[in-house]
Fold:
Amino acid sequence: MSHGGPAVFRKIAERGDDIAHWGGRQSASHMVAMADPEGLTAHIRAFFGGL
Structure:
């Protein structure tokens, strides 16, 4: 995402929600599962591991 989108989305999300996991990496594509399957898997594991 361009223009700092993820940082803006996180600020909005933190206003009223408790964020369990926020991945800091950005994918080169909007099709994350195809562009970086290992990275997506790591983010999913980190999220569910923290619950």
Summary: The chain has a mean pLDDT of 78. The longest helix spans residues 37-49.
